[in-house]
Structures are given as structure tokens and as C-alpha cells.
């Protein structure tokens, strides 16, 4: 057994799905770099498993996925630097970081598109507060970790920010943070 099981009475991640994914990830990681393995840091970050009684502990699997994402991101960074060179790689990372910062410092309440008043989105106040933390990270090195970005949760709000836009920004922040480690 790769991971501990979820506590009794609690659902956990489907064991077969997790094991299959980990096997695919092992193959992709050890595959020829020029071949398309189908798994990269981004796909690991967005992987989801079905929940089952008696499944693997979500906490343990999530922690392993974060370590796996870090390993894939480091390998991807090394490959891109080898292909493009340091200067081009860091220029690309700086440009992406600037785009994130530009979005994060927009006026409060106007940082993302809003959903209709009849639809739930992310809390504007919660997202704006986290966007301020992101801006602080990119402007002055305020403490923020990939874990903080991966685990942030926002309350729902009618007429709130469009979730897909906020989620995309958070994925991009994580990608940049892992790229420049």
C-alpha cells in the first residue's frame, strides 16, 4: 500500500486511480525527454481522483502530488533552460510575473470579471486580500509559498469574481514560483 487509508467513516481517494496515476507519472518522469509523456507539472496540479470509502488519505496523497509537481517543474525548468538559455528563460518568467502583478494591483473589486448577481463566484473581498499578498510577493518578496497558493480557499459570493479567471491566475502564480525556485 502506497499511502495510509482515510480514517474510518471518511472517504478517501480511489486507490486504483491514484496507483494508476502514479505509475503513469513514473513512466513520464523516466521517459525520453523528447517524447511526450502526457504528464507535466500543470497536469499534476489539476489532477483529481474519485472519492471512495476506504480510499487513500487525501492529505497524504495531496502532499505527495505537491512533491511530484515540484519535481516535474524542476525538470521542466532544466529542460527549458537547456533549450533556450538562462537569459530567455528568466525573461519569460519575468514577463509572466509582471502580468500577474499587473492583474493583482488593479483596483479592489475590479481585478477579475464578475459573474451575475444570480450566480455564485468567489468572494471579492477574499480574492482581493489574497491578490494583495500576491502583489506583495512579486513587489517586495513578502512571504508566500506555493503551498499557500495551492491551498487558498475563497468563500462563495453572489455576483463574485469569475472562478475560472481566479483559478487560472493562481495556477500561473504557482507555475512562476516553481519556475524560479
UniProtKB/TrEMBL annotation:
Alphabetical keyword list: Cell cycle, Cell division, Coiled coil, Cytoplasm
Transmembrane stretches, start-end: none
GO biological process: cell division
Protein location: Cytoplasm
Gene3D superfamilies linked to this entry: 6.10.250.660
Domain of life, per lineage: Bacteria
Protein's name according to its UniProt entry: Cell wall synthesis protein Wag31
Organism name: Protaetiibacter larvae
Taxon lineage: Bacteria, Bacillati, Actinomycetota, Actinomycetes, Micrococcales
